[in-house]
Amino acid sequence: MTAKRVKKAVIPAAGLGTRFLPATKAMPKEMLPIVDKPTIQYIIEEAVESGIEDILIVTGKGKRAIEDHFDSVPELEQTLIEKGKSEFLKLVEETTNINIHFIRQSKPMGLGHAVLQAKAFVGDEPFVVMLGDDIVQSEIPCTKQLIDQYYKTERSIIGVQPVLSDVTHRYGIVDPKETLENGLHKVESFVEKPAPGTEPSNLAILGRYLFSPQIFNFLETQVPGSGGEIQLTDAITRLNEVEHVFAYEFTGKRYDVGEKLGFIRTTIEFALNRPDLEKEVLVILKELITNYEGRTIYR
Ligand code: UTP
Fold first, then answer.
1. 286 Cα distance to chain centroid
2. Hey, which of 69, 159, 222, 247 has its CA 20 to 30 A from 184?
3. Residue 111 alpha carbon to ligand 1 centre in Å
4. Which atom of ligand 1 is nearest to the CA of 131?
5. Using CA atoms, how far apart are residues 26 and 220, in angstroms rounded to an integer?
6. What tens digit of pLDDT does each residue of 136-190 get?
7. Residue closest by Cα to atom 1 of ligand 1
8. For the whole model, what pTM was predicted?
9. For the segment 96-105, what is each residue's pLDDT rounded down to a tens digit?
10. Which of 111, 135, 232 to mutate to test the pocket of ligand 1 (most atoms within 8 A of CB)?
């Protein structure tokens, strides 16, 4: 049997973004920019570079800006043509040549419930789920790494990386049973946000999943779990009981843009990695640090 090709991606983006209030009161957190690109655009680019052909974004109330961002803007494009600003025109067009679909989650009832909204879009095919809270920079795109593992195993694959033990309580954590080959683990169980000290390992689920369509059978019957929400991790645990779900330690640097400090760090690091900004950003940082140490900063 040859594995079905993985062509579809689902990006849940219907959460409330409470950690970024008040910025997210009227604007989706997925539209917050890292330097000059909304976080969701980095995710879409990873999907496209991984060979994904169709993307479904699950949105909610107040998320219109995401749809607008990936729509064409004829007046803006015309103005850029007239003014000869071809480099900006290219940037604007980059966001409109992709096959993106949208569906609404009626209420933010949890990540599992958001993924369930993709059932009709996905049909009977393997698919990936990508969360906008994590941006991964790697030679081989993170999603492509999971897809390659799927072609070898024909099983659902959950992307993981080790995190420090003092933050395991913020993540879904895997309890590995057996390591099959470098970085690929069979899993005993998946635990959503374990209480500090009770974590079975430090391997955290980091926003990249590849599922067989069987996951929908479990999402449909999933009762609310942690936080009263329909948890994707709980459905994965049940799926694992009938067909093995593997955890794969993907390679690459992962940036947590779902919380403030991670967001600030990512912005600075990405700016320092941009040849057009690097020098001046370094000057700004040095100046700020010097002034800060001299406590001449105004508050
Ligand atoms: P988070 O809990 O990290 O996102 O959910 P959030 O709810 O937007 O942020 P905070 O915690 O309030 O600050 C992880 C992912 O699942 C999506 C979110 O959009 C995010 O990408 N999600 C979560 C949904 O799409 N629907 C939900 O009901 C819950």
1. 32
2. 222
3. 6
4. 21
5. 31
6. 999 999 999 999 999 999 999 999 999 999 999 999 999 998 888 889 999 999 9
7. 15
8. 0.92
9. 667 899 999 9
10. 111
| Helices 39-49 & 142-153 angle (0-180, nearest 10) | 40
3-state secondary structure of 56: strand
Residue identified by tokens 């970085």 is 183
Going by alpha carbons, the residue nearest to atom 25 of ligand 1 is: 14
Give the CA angle between residues 77, 80, 85 to the nearest 5°: 135
In sequence order, the β-bridge partners of residue 134 are: 256
CA distance to 23, 24, 50, 108, 257, per residue, from 20 (Å): 6, 6, 29, 16, 10
Give bridge partners of residue 211 from the DSSP assignment. Answer: 127
Which amino acid, one-letter code, is at 5? Answer: R
Which residue ranges form the domains of the chain, and what is each CATH number? 8-258 (3.90.550.10), 261-299 (no CATH)
Question: The tokens of 2 are what?
Answer: 């040859």
